[in-house]
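pls design
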């Protein structure tokens, strides 16, 4: 539906190709076929979807302040999460539309939170209008497949499974239905935090940021509806690398807003599927970093922390000064593909911290 061939190319193709190919302007060598693969399960492929049958939402982004507070209780419990897979059309970048696959209608999915020792019950429903089966692998699970073998749901189905959260930490969850990278990159990822027994150090605010990659058939900035390109994904060449689902989701009303003097914690995850994230805030230094989201003593005074594909990190900092601070992937060649955000600190400039003589 979105392939465009110039009349000249069609004319040349018409002379070179058998009639069945020449007559069909929608033919593409990989359009419905699978790419070569020696991987697990189904190979990457493009699946034609009737976009008009999918619901459209104005904003696919999950807000960075949309997360539950730290758990205060001192005993284990059974915690229940209900998630719905929804395939939706929304804006990837101003003027560019895409079919997102989501947990609960946003990218990333909801921030899930439990406490170490809890039994976690996960109920997954796949919306009837979905075009694919989906499932979940939570990195907080101890067991084969991380839950994916107990959770695959066809459109219209619901399934439930339970796991025990043995280890505190910050964990990725993602769809694990083949072709797995295709399902993840289209938006099916989020974080589940298993709070430690004695909780986290107290902060004034927490935030939730996740990086994801989008492989569009058109080039970066091409407008209109864009199909997924499995070829670009196999080559690990994303057109867009964004935070919280779309370009500019963490600017304007999506900015991280704090008051001078506050201490904040940012949970940073990376759905991948190919790039690591080199998380940095221009003009700030992280007071504490839990590398890779590990529940070990934090490192102090860190400038940039690595967030691997399929992993997370946690940073804490106190905002001594005021003003606007840019958050970015300091593999900074990617900045124009969308991986940045804004931290706005309301307050007064502190004399002597940064000035002209
Ligand atoms: Cu899926």
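designed seq:
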């Amino acid at each position: 539906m979105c392939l465009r061939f110039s009349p000249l190319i069609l004319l040349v193709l018409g002379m070179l190709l058998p009639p069945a190919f020449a007559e069909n302007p929608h033919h593409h060598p990989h359009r419905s076929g699978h790419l070569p693969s020696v991987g697990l399960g189904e190979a990457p492929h493009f699946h034609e979807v009737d976009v008009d049958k999918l619901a459209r939402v104005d904003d696919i982004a999950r807000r960075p302040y949309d997360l539950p507070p730290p758990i205060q209780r001192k005993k284990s419990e059974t915690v229940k999460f209900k998630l719905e897979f929804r395939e939706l059309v929304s804006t990837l970048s101003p003027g560019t539309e895409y079919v997102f696959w989501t947990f609960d209608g946003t990218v990333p999915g909801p921030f899930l939170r439990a406490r170490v020792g809890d039994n976690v019950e996960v109920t997954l429903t796949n919306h009837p209008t979905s075009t694919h089966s989906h499932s979940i692998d939570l990195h907080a699970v101890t067991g084969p497949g991380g839950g994916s073998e107990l959770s695959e749901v066809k459109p219209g189905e619901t399934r439930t499974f339970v796991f025990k959260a043995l280890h505190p930490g910050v964990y990725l969850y993602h769809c694990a239905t083949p072709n797995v990278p295709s399902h993840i990159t289209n938006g099916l990822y989020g974080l589940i935090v298993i709070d430690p027994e004695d909780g986290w150090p107290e902060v004034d605010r927490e935030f939730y940021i996740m990086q994801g990659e989008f492989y569009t058939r058109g080039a970066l900035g091409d407008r209109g509806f864009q199909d997924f390109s499995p070829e670009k994904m196999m080559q690990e060449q994303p057109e867009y690398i964004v935070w919280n689902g779309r370009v500019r989701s963490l600017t304007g009303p999506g900015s991280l807003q704090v008051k001078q003097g506050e201490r904040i914690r940012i949970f940073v995850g990376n759905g991948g599927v190919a790039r690591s994230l080199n998380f940095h805030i221009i003009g700030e230094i992280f007071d504490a970093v839990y590398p890779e989201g590990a529940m070990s003593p934090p490192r102090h005074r860190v400038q940039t922390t690595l967030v691997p594909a399929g992993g997370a990190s946690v940073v804490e900092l106190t905002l001594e000064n005021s003003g606007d601070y840019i958050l970015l992937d300091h593999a900074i060649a990617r900045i124009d593909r969308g991986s940045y955000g804004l931290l706005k600190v309301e307050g007064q400039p502190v004399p002597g911290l940064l000035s002209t003589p």
